[in-house]
Amino acid sequence: MKPIVALVKSKSHYDGVYEALKLIEDQIKEDLKGKRKVLVKPNFVSTRRQLSATHVDAVRAVLDMISRHHSGSIIIGEGPSSSSLRNGLINFGYLELQREYDVEFVDLNEDDYIELEGVDSQMRPLKFRMSKTLIESDYRISVALPKTHDCVITTLSIKNVVVGGLVSGEKGKIHQGYKAINLNIAKLAEHVMPNLGVIDGFVGMEGRGPVSGDPVDLRAAAASLHPVSLDAVMCRIMGFDPLNVGYLYYLDKWGIGVADLKKIKVIGESIEDLARRFKPHPRYQEMLNWK
Q1: Are 108 and 134 a contacting pair, CB within 8 Å?
Q2: Global pTM value
Q3: What is the pLDDT at residue 201?
Q4: How far apart, in whole angstroms, are the C-alpha atoms of residue 263 and residue 261?
């Protein structure tokens, strides 16, 4: 059976995400059975610039859907690149979620860790310290946004979890050159792959992402229990070949997910109707040297 990706037009950060999730609600309900601890992972690569971070209303839509089928604990976990989680929670209005949904906040940067194996720039084994809470959660939900990236072309649901889940001092270590960073994201994703991926594309980012790029009025949202396929679909919407994104290529090649668009079923809107070519990062051609 082909992996399913739900794709919708979006009127707001909340509405688009909720409508995409509704299209696969039966799958989500079944997938959540028996799960006790759910971790929701937004993207706070910056705790100051809203354009680079997951909007609180996208997470609110996820919590509204999950709360319909899950009565256990919910953690919002993130490890910002250059600041404390609390700064992002305050600046982006997340603290209200604690009162509304009784969620717990965990700064993944400060978490206990488990060592996982990746590679250095010479393809030699290199250990990475990944958040223990992230690895041991029963159910991981990545709530990301579509952005261009300065090392791996695009950053979407999988990279959000992998790099954001590395504890303090480890995020910079993943940058071992174009080939190694793509391999590392793919290798680490095997341990922390989202169970549910969500992309809030009401507004995306092009050019000098993942922090300093320009806004794109995309007005799309997508969700899937198959994050490799989700990210592949969003890559195509952004104007990129998903198999040119190294970590998606490896995950597809290793049989961990499906990035070949011919083997993915898109429900809701079509890719063609929502496609909007994003301006790539200026180093785009260099990034293809991962191959």
Answers
A1: yes
A2: 0.98
A3: 98
A4: 5
